[in-house]
Each structure stands twice: as structure tokens, then as C-alpha cells.
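Submission checklist for the structure archive. All mandatory fields must be present; incomplete records are returned to the submitter.

[x] Identifier: Ribonuclease HI
[x] Organism: Halolamina pelagica
[x] Residue count: 198
[x] Sequence attached
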Amino acid sequence: MPTVTVDPDDARERLREAGVEVSTGNTDHERWRAERGDAVAVAYDDKVVVQGSSPTDLTLLLRDGGGRAHVYFDGASRGNPGPAAVGWAIVSSDGVVAEGSERIGRRTNNQAEYEALLRALRAARDLGLDELDVRGDSQLVVKQLRGEWNTNDPELRELRVTARELLRAFDRWDVEHVPREINDRADDLANEALDDAR
């Protein structure tokens, strides 16, 4: 069980600002309790203890500054354009913080890559992270985000603008191209979502 040394009043306010409902403690020793996902935070006089199968659902919000994580993203399209899906994972020093996958209808592969990135960035923002190392195996998305490549495709241009707006919410970020084997979890999630559609 992670213990976060933090002022319980500050922690309660931080959770409320993130949209987490905070309730009264169950005993005289508990100042308050909060639940999010698979985590429960219990506040005592000088610390907050987080329990559950996914403590990072709350620990990232409780730590001052939000912390740093790696974001992996991948999109897949069968037919290009065709049935498409996204996969993404956020990994911190505590391990996998969050991950997701879903089918997104008919898209090109490049559109699916951007959609995966957008979902991952929104999740990182909602977790309260403030530093991101973004990693993907799409050279097109990486080079467009860095400003090294342009696009004439209006849909991709709009997706790039949205991604850049989301990235501005973080204190620090970088984006790098990685080989598919480094991005394997996001790749697996995207392909599993497509396979589940059958």
C-alpha cells in the first residue's frame, strides 16, 4: 500500500479539483476517504494511504507536481481506410498507470495513430501528470508533432493541432519515434480491439 506524505487538506482539495468525490472517513482515525477506479485513498492526520489493485489511479493526483510518465500510442487500420482501433499505455516509475483500447470506426492508419495519441494525452492530463515522454512507432505522427513534416490532409492537420493543444497543458514533454517492439503494448492493445470485432 503506497503511503503519500502530504497535507490531508491539500490532498483533499487536489482530488476535488480533479473531479474525485471525497467522503467522510469510516472511523474516528480517518479524516476522509476517496475512490477512483480501482484505488481507495484514506487520509489520516499526516499522511494518505492508498489501497486497491491500481493505486496509481490516485497516487499521481496526490503527489505534488503530478509526476512524469512515458506515453505509448498506436493505431491500426485494416484496409487503410478500413476498420480501425487504437491502443495506448501510460507507464510511470510505479509501473503501468493506465491503458486503453477501442475500435474507432473506419479510419486510415494515420488517423488511427493520431486518435490513439489523443486518447493517451487526455488520460495523462486527467491523471494530473505534468511531464511526458511520448513514444510511438508512427514516424508521420512524431515528425508532424515536432514540426519536421507538414501535411496537406485537412483531417490530419486538425488532429495535429488538437494534439499540440493537449501537449501545451504539460510542463514538459518530448516525442520520439521508437521501433514497434518498444511500442508493443500499445500495438497489442490496438490489434486486440480489432480482433475482438470479429
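[x] Structure attached
Curator remark: The chain has two domains: 3-60, 68-196. The chain has a mean pLDDT of 91.
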